[in-house]
User: Which sequence fits this backbone?
């Protein structure tokens, strides 16, 4: 900047002549959610430019997918958004089923909803806790993990794994629920519901938290759409878009009989199906607070969905149905399907040459698009706002780098 | 060995004799001269500032020494409170001076992109 | 708490409150309510509190020093010997018959600066006069604050000034300046009280200038009007002329005496014991002489500096009396007195510096009432009264004559003036002349008594005139008439004011306030004239003045209120003023009636003032210092007795009655046509209507000569120097042709050589000024060392220890 | 103690004084070092409990009470790293500067009547001044580390601490004004008696300013939510990013020492110092100043009192730390400039006016009249001077 | 063999019984040597931050000297204000020396020699002055006075309580410091305003947001210079789009 001023005589010199600094935030940094590396250009505390550098977690997942059968690749989807592995499984499974025009049983559909929404809660809990950590408060993180542990216990009981489940698979699920599971799940929901108010007290309505998030990193709906943001990041800017409602038939059919309202601010207010804290006066639609708040709403919404799914699942008689064989051939052609994952719209694309092994596999990661907008949001903010903004985007590097 | 001891003995007086005003004056003189030399030698404006601080501090040591009731020997009258109060004022003014001088330095840096006082020769004849 | 510590606290607080109000309004004025409406409340609250405090002080004073009928002679001091602050210890020396200085408390609050003899301090000198003046000033100021909060309400919103014409023909629009008015008023009250309470002349001078600046602010309140800003500047300049004299007086006093304190002060002596350091009063009127006037030692030594230089230091003290007898120092004392009086003349609008006061009526009417009639202009009289002990009979004579001239000139001008405020303004000047004259002829109580009563009735009159102007929107009496019907309160109170100013009353029974004060002035003037037949013109001036006063005051009243309306346009719009303006009128009217009365038990303003009478003025004084021994200043009590009193009272009554009757004949009954008179005495009328051509005179004396001088200078410049230079130029051109070649060869060569030499010298020299900070530091350090080394060589002992 | 050694043990004076000084220094050092150990353990336990965990449980048997010691050993054993570009001397010195400042401030901190390293006439002032030096270590560390994160942390610390010294100073002045002395012992002594004598309850203004003090104190020792200098989510670890091992532990000890110090200062200034809420000792008829065994008991009781209060303060800081998010640097500065400073100034003024208007308090009998005698001046060369507040401005009487 | 044990032995042996040590003097010596030593170190050092660090130590030791001289309040004041002031110096030192060339601006050897000569001369002069007055050299009588902040405070509001008011000759009475105190406070205020004015942010023509946006306009700027090791480039050149 100094150089520019020297060159341009029209601009009067101002302030202390300062030099800019390039600082590396990450890949080893406490608040970059894995191995993200942000290069910050700062003038003192003010950040003038942020450039994310990615790829530290690249594992050639898509290439591997072109060498495995469709069902064999399921464990690799687990490792994309490892915080919401169920949703990843579902996305891939549905994409394959779309190509194969395969219809799973109704019971399996409801079980899938149940599991996926439960995992959404788990994922948002991590997002929320980690966001507190980004803002310097430690305890909510552990409160969130405490509850997440209970969900993981349920998952463990259902499929034997706590992180990489591979539970939902092409053509259904690997196994039905063990007996007594639903009771435990309902007990968990019962116990979990009041705890959300604690989270609101600790974070959502906390004065310091509001100060740190309100009116920070404001993203206009246009900007969000321009950058292809999706999920809570998009809805935090007030865009009413949810794949569960607006997606393709094969996906929306799952949620057909479910009552839920998309968690987005419409006409100046959020859905009023539950009691939520009021929006603070400082908050502007599209800022970090709103992105965070949308996630908190979705937790409640997912609980409703889980409850409904339990009812519907128990109402379904008959068998769950077996998943497809590992070597089941796919018809030649291609399919692309986006599902609503906790982080946003996760798209899977596959091209088949008629064998069981896809000819091409590609994934469209929501976190990737969401991270791309950080560079716009962080312009002119303070260093302390960078974790606040990046945290509010709630990215997972496994999904971005694949 | 005796020679060594003998040469050490006069210095031992320093820790056996009570301190007098002159002791303090010596300290003050050293601080003062350090400050002057610092001002004369440093090309860094901040160094010059530090020199000024040292000079003022040296003067303060003298004031305090003259004010101190401890240090007065026979036949001399302490400045009493006046010395301390003046030293106090000197400290305050030093702070003021530092503020202004820093502002000047900053301005100089803004205009010349350096704090080298040798570059501050705009008034050179 | 005893009086000595209570009074300074009370009056000091009363003094400072308006300052607080000023500061408050200065900073927060525009934010006080809509358009600063509440500024009036702040200022009024401050001055009311001051009034209450002054009244408390007043009552406290009376509790300790009850005002009783004065005893003439020297014994009244004994009653106060117990709480006498200044002269403790003097009793023993002088016995019961000794002349005692009056009761006064003095001291310093804060010493601003002290070095050697010069001591500038904020202090107090409080006697009954101070307290009385405090009450009067705060009281009138209170009335006027109340009145002004109604009168100035126009200033609360956007004002269209119809008297200011802009270049495009429209009138000036400006935001209202309501808070600003009260801000200036508060500052004025503070300054005025500062003069009153001041314990030394330096402080007086400070506040003297402060009231001047306040006056400047207030006269120029409508500063967009050319007339107002001119008037303000005029007032300020005339005051500066007077103040210049005052400065001379101050310097004479300080240079010769080394103190400006009025009273003695206690200072720590060399041995730690407090000793008394004499003030001005006791220097000029020392106790050894029985408080008779004596040229102080300091002035004698100052004047006889040459002789002092020739005398051995030890012998000086012994020879002072001899030198005094030779007359050394008396002129210095005279100059000091006249100098101080110059300041008073400026402030109190005395001849020849009186012309500013009528113009000062450009200010808002409450200002005219407060500043330019009741208080500030009285400050001059007050200072003469305060400074009375130092004034020699010669100075007093000067004062008396100046007063007489002023009173006469002003009265005559007032006869023909048509602007209601100008009539009052000239009346003020005339009355101030009265006071000065009274003081000049030795009537200390008379003059100050008149000051107090005048303050009441003149502020009343001004406020009444303000009420009239407020109703009629004009100042011209010729457009008024018959207003008594529509403005009964104003008319009634104004009548009271007129009666008071002419000194109406039933002789020897009862009268309005002016009756008492004017009578005592007349009596004292008569007494003085009898003692000094050469100066009997003074009495004639007073008596004539009384007649003229009665005439023009009633001319004013009749023209304004009596008869039938002359201008129907004006009469239709006339209305009684709002209550907030009428109430002060009533209050002041009551006081204009009763202020002069002496209550049973002896309480009265005159008796109160008597307590403060300067020591040594109770007795008749023979002889002057400067103008020979022929002057006699009679004691004031003499004028209260016997034939003098009767003659004076009767004269006053007769002249006043005559004046009123003449006015009635001319303006009420129309027996005599004013127009006819004006035609008969046309030259005199014109002379008077043009105010004795004083403005023109000053214009001719000062302005025109200045212009002339400039014109002459310019003429010389154009007519003489320019042709000369042109000629020179022509010659030079011719010569230049011849010179050119010499120039190019010889001179140029020399010039170039010089230039290059200078250039190279400069180049060398500039190396010294390196601009390098560090080098300079080095030079300083090395220079210090070098200096000390040099010093140690030159003064070998200095560093040797 | 020195008198005891001289008179009873018959040690030479110089030795007695040296021993006394050494003992005092060792005690204070142990208060910091030992205190740090205890507080770190407590912090872990508290954090654990707040977060629904257990905290350390195994090391040292029950409660994991040796965990800090084990950590200390680990730190001792760690490799001593120094970045390549670091300014070696300053890098090595910085932790000690910080630690020394914290340590020096303890010199003037009384633990009970007479239990004090060096009683100072300007005790409060000294403590605040010395505490301000701690920031030097931080800045030097930040600069010398040759790391940008460290530099950021150091600059933040400088801005923050220098700013917060202003309201902190103003808060401290209020008790000084009420007691009429800057001597911490005198200030605490003035609050002897029942709970109501504490300056916290002196008037509404002191009550408010106590909380301002708490805020400023937390900020000036860099604890959450003001721990900008080491904000781990932004600056990795701030000024001590590049530190490890023993040097890092010195910073830690300095931090805990300062925490304890400002808490103790709060206790002394506002919470009656070593005077308990109920004057047990004086109700029992014991006194502090007599020098016999009973008086030692009373002093020990007082010390326990003060330590309890100070520890409570530290615990509250921990509680805050594990509950609240961190503020941003501009918000921290705004809190100082827009809230703390004006509030402190207003409260200072209010307390002053209250002292003038109601010197005996609202209920006159409830409290010792404050400010009877301004500061106990001890006899000087010219004699004993006592200036009463009513005498200010008058000629002062001096008895030679 | 070496002189050290001999000196040590001599110290412990006859010439100096430990009891003879004047502890006050010892501490004085300690503080004085720290103070003077670091003052000299300030002169000798080239790095601004180190200089500031030495300066702080020197000033801190001087505060210790003040404590020894019985001026406790002054000592604490010295710690607070000087240390605070120097702290700011330090911060600026760090800020202004972010560019490597400014860290150490060295004077020439000639300057050093000249300054040294002048300094030595000045020192000699001052030392001679210090020792030339006999009463100054007289060892202290050791009058113990209780130091108190109150007399200073009182004198600042214009009341002297440290001297007898009655009985002393008026000429010897010392004045209070109310006026200087006020002047100093006004002075400080003026200085603060002035300093803020001098170092103020100048009025900028372009609003900062636009400027920032403009400055980061070349989209590839960071990417080009992603390698942190290359930031030695002037930042301006980076912004100008890769100009050298």
Assistant:
């Amino acid at each position: 900047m100094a150089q520019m001023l020297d060159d341009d005589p029209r601009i009067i010199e101002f302030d202390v002549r300062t030099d800019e600094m390039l600082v590396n935030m990450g890949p080893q940094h406490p608040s970059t959610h894995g191995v993200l590396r942000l290069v910050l250009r700062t003038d003192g505390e003010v950040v003038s430019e942020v450039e994310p550098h990615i790829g530290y977690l690249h594992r050639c997942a898509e290439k591997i997918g072109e060498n495995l059968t469709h069902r064999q690749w399921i464990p690799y989807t687990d490792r994309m958004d490892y915080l919401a592995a169920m949703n990843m499984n579902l996305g891939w499974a549905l994409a394959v089923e779309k190509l194969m025009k395969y219809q799973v049983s109704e019971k399996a559909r409801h079980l899938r909803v149940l599991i996926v929404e439960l995992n959404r809660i788990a994922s948002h809990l991590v997002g929320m806790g980690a966001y507190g950590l980004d803002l310097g408060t430690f305890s909510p993180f552990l409160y969130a993990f405490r509850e997440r542990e209970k969900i993981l216990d349920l998952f463990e009981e259902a499929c034997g794994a706590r992180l990489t489940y591979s539970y939902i698979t092409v053509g259904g699920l690997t196994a039905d629920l063990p007996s007594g599971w639903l009771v435990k799940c309902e007990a968990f929901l019962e116990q979990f519901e009041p705890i959300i108010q604690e989270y609101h007290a600790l974070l959502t309505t906390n004065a310091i938290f509001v100060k740190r998030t309100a009116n920070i990193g404001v993203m206009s709906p246009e900007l969000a759409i321009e950058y292809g943001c999706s999920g809570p990041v998009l809805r935090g800017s007030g865009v009413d878009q949810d794949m569960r409602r607006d997606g393709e038939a094969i996906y929306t059919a799952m949620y057909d009989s479910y009552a839920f309202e998309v968690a987005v601010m419409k006409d100046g207010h959020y859905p009023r199906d539950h009691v939520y804290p009021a929006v603070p006066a400082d908050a502007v639609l599209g800022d970090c607070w709103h992105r965070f708040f949308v996630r908190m709403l979705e937790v409640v919404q997912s609980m409703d969905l889980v409850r409904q799914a339990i009812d519907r699942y128990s109402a379904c008689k008959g068998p769950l149905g077996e998943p497809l064989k590992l070597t089941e051939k796919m018809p030649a052609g291609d399919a692309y399907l986006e599902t609503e994952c906790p982080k946003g719209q996760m798209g899977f694309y596959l091209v088949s040459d008629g064998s069981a092994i896809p000819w091409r596999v590609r994934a469209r990661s929501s976190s990737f698009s969401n991270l791309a907008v950080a560079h716009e949001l962080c312009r002119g903010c303070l260093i302390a706002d960078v974790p606040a903004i990046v945290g509010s985007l709630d990215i997972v590097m496994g999904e971005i780098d694949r | 060995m005796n020679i060594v001891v003998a040469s050490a003995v006069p210095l031992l007086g320093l820790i056996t004799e009570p301190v007098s005003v002159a002791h303090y004056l010596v300290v003050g003189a050293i601080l003062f001269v350090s400050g002057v030399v610092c001002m004369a030698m440093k090309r860094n404006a901040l160094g010059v500032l530090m020199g000024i601080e040292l000079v003022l501090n040296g003067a303060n040591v003298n004031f305090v020494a003259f004010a101190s009731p401890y240090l007065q020997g026979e036949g001399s009258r302490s400045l009493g409170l006046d010395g301390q109060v003046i030293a106090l004022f000197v400290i305050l003014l030093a702070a003021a001076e530092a503020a202004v001088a820093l502002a000047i330095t900053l301005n100089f840096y803004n205009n010349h992109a350096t704090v080298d006082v040798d570059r501050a020769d705009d008034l050179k004849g | 708490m005893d009086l000595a510590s209570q009074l300074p606290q009370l009056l000091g607080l009363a003094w400072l409150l308006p300052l607080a109000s000023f500061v408050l309004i200065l900073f927060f004025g525009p934010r006080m309510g809509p358009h600063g409406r509440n500024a009036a409340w702040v200022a009024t609250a401050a001055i009311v509190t001051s009034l209450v405090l002054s009244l408390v002080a007043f009552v406290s004073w009376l509790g300790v020093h009850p005002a009783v009928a004065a005893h003439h002679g020297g014994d009244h001091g004994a009653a106060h010997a117990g709480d006498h602050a200044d002269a403790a210890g003097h009793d023993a020396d002088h016995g019961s018959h000794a002349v005692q200085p009056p009761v006064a408390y003095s001291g310093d609050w804060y010493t601003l600066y002290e070095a050697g003899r010069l001591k500038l301090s904020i202090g107090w000198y409080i006697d009954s006069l101070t307290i009385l003046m405090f009450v009067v000033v705060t009281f009138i100021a209170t009335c006027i604050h109340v009145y002004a909060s109604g009168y100035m309400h126009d200033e609360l919103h956007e004002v269209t000034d119809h008297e200011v014409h802009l270049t495009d023909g429209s009138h000036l629009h400006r935001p209202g300046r309501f808070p600003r008015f009260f801000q200036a008023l508060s500052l004025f009250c503070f300054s005025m009280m500062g003069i009153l309470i001041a314990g030394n002349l330096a402080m007086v001078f400070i506040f003297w200038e402060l009231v001047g600046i306040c006056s400047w602010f207030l006269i120029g309140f409508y500063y967009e009007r050319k007339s107002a800003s001119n008037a303000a500047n005029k007032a300020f300049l005339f005051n500066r002329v007077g103040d210049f004299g005052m400065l001379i007086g101050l310097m004479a006093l300080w240079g010769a005496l080394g103190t400006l304190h009025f009273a003695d002060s206690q200072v720590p002596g060399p041995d730690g014991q407090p000793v008394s350091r004499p003030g001005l009063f006791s220097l000029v009127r020392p106790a050894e002489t029985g408080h008779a006037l004596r040229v102080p030692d300091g002035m004698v030594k100052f004047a006889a500096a040459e002789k002092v230089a020739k005398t051995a230091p030890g012998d000086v003290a012994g020879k002072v009396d001899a030198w005094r007898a030779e007359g050394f120092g008396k002129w210095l004392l005279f100059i000091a007195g006249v100098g101080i009086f110059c300041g008073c003349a400026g402030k109190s609008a005395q001849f020849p510096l009186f012309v500013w006061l009528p113009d000062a009526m450009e200010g808002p009417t409450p200002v005219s009432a407060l500043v330019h009639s009741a208080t500030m202009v009285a400050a001059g009289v007050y200072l003469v009264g305060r400074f009375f002990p130092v004034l020699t009979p010669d100075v007093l004579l000067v004062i008396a004559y100046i007063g007489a001239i002023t009173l006469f000139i002003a009265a005559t001008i007032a006869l023909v003036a048509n602007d209601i405020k100008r009539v009052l303004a000239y009346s003020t000047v005339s009355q101030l002349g009265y006071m000065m004259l009274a003081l000049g002829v030795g009537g200390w109580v008379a003059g100050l008594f008149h000051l107090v009563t005048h303050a009441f009735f003149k502020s009343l009159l001004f406020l009444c005139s303000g009420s009239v102007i407020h109703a009629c929107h004009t100042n011209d009496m010729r457009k008024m008439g018959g207003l008594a019907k529509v403005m009964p309160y104003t008319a009634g109170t104004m009548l009271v004011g007129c009666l008071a100013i002419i000194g109406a009353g039933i002789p020897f029974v009862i009268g309005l306030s002016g009756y008492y004060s004017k009578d005592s002035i007349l009596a004292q003037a008569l007494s003085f004239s009898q003692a000094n037949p050469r100066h009997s013109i003074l009495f004639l001036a007073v008596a004539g003045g009384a007649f003229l006063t009665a005439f023009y005051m009633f001319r004013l009243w009749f023209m304004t209120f009596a008869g039938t309306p002359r201008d129907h346009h004006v009469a239709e719009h006339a209305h009684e003023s709002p209550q907030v303006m009428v109430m002060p009128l009533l209050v002041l009217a009551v006081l204009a009636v009763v202020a002069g009365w002496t209550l049973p038990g002896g309480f009265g303003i005159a008796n109160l003032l008597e307590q403060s009478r300067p020591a040594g003025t109770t007795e008749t004084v023979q002889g002057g210092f400067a103008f020979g021994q022929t002057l006699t200043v009679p004691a004031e009590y003499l004028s209260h007795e016997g034939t003098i009193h009767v003659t004076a009272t009767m004269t006053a009554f007769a002249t006043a009655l005559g004046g009123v009757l003449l006015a009635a004949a001319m303006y009420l009954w129309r027996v005599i046509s004013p127009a006819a008179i004006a035609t008969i005495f046309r030259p005199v009328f014109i002379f008077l209507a043009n105010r004795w051509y004083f403005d023109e005179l000053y214009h001719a004396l000062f302005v025109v000569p200045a212009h002339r001088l400039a014109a002459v200078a310019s003429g010389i410049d154009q007519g003489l120097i320019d042709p000369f230079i042109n000629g020179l130029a022509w010659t030079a051109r011719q010569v230049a042709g011849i010179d050119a070649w010499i120039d190019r060869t010889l001179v140029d060569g020399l010039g170039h050589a010089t230039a290059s030499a200078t250039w190279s010298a400069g180049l060398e020299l500039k190396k010294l000024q390196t601009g390098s900070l560090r080098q300079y530091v080095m030079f300083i350090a090395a220079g210090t060392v070098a200096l000390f080394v040099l010093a140690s060589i030159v003064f070998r002992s200095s560093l040797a220890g | 103690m020195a008198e005891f050694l001289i008179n009873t043990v018959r040690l030479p004076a110089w030795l007695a004084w040296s021993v006394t000084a050494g003992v005092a220094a060792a005690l204070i050092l142990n208060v910091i070092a030992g205190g740090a150990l205890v507080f770190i353990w407590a912090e872990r336990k508290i954090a654990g409990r707040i977060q629904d965990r257990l905290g350390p449980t195994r090391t040292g048997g029950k409660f994991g009470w040796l965990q800090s010691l084990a950590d200390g050993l680990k730190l001792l054993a760690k490799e001593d790293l120094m970045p390549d570009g670091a300014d070696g001397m300053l890098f090595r010195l910085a932790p000690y500067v910080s630690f020394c400042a914290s340590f020096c401030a303890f010199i003037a901190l009384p633990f009970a009547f007479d239990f004090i390293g060096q009683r100072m006439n300007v005790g409060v002032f000294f403590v605040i001044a010395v505490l301000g030096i701690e920031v030097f270590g931080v800045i030097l560390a930040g600069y010398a580390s040759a790391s940008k994160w460290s530099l950021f942390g150091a600059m933040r610390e400088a801005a923050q601490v220098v700013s917060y010294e202003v309201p902190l100073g103003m808060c401290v002045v209020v008790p000084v004004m009420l007691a009429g002395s800057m001597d911490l012992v005198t200030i605490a002594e003035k609050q002897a008696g029942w709970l109501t004598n504490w300056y916290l309850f002196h008037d509404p203004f002191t009550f408010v300013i106590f909380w301002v003090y708490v805020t400023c104190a937390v900020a000036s020792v860099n604890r959450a939510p003001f721990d900008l200098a080491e904000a781990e989510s932004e600056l990795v670890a701030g000024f001590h990013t590049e530190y490890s091992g023993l040097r890092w532990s010195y910073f830690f000890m300095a931090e805990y020492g300062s925490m304890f110090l400002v808490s103790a200062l709060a206790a002394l200034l506002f919470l009656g110092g070593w005077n308990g809420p109920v004057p047990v000792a004086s109700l029992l008829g014991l006194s502090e100043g007599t020098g016999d065994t009973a008086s030692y008991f009373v002093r020990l009781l007082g010390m326990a009192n003060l330590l309890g209060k100070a520890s409570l303060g530290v615990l509250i800081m921990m509680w805050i730390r594990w509950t609240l998010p961190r503020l941003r640097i501009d918000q921290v500065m705004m809190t100082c400039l827009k809230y703390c400073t004006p509030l402190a100034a207003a409260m200072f003024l209010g307390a002053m006016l209250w002292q003038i208007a109601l010197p005996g308090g609202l209920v006159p009998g409830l409290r010792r009249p404050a400010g009877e005698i301004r500061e106990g001046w001890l006899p000087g060369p010219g004699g004993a001077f006592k200036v009463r507040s009513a005498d200010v401005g008058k000629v002062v009487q001096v008895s030679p | 063999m070496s002189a050290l044990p001999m000196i040590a032995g001599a110290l412990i042996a006859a010439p100096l019984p430990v009891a003879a040590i004047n502890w006050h003097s010892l501490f004085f010596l300690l503080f004085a040597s720290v103070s003077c030593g670091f003052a000299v170190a300030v002169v000798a050092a080239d790095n601004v931050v180190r200089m500031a660090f030495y300066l702080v130590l020197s000033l801190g030791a001087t505060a210790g000297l003040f404590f020894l001289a019985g001026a406790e309040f002054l000592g604490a004041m010295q710690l607070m204000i000087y240390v605070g002031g120097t702290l700011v110096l330090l911060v600026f030192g760090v800020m202004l020396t972010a560019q490597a060339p400014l860290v150490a601006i060295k004077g020439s050897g000639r300057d050093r020699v000249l300054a040294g000569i002048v300094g030595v001369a000045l020192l000699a002069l001052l030392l001679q002055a210090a020792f030339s007055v006999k009463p100054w050299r007289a060892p202290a009588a050791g009058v113990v006075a209780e130091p108190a902040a109150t007399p200073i405070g009182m004198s600042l509001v214009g009341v002297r309580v440290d001297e007898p008011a009655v009985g002393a000759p008026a000429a010897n009475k010392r004045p209070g410091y109310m006026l200087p105190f006020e002047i100093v406070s006004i002075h400080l205020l003026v200085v603060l305003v002035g300093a803020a004015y001098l170092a103020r942010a100048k009025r900028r023509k372009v609003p900062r947001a636009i400027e920032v946006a403009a400055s980061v306009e070349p989209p590839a700027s960071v990417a080009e210079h992603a390698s942190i090791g290359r930031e030695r480039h002037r930042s301006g050149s980076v912004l100008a789009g890769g100009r050298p």
Summary: The CA atoms of residues 25 and 62 of chain B lie 6 Å apart.
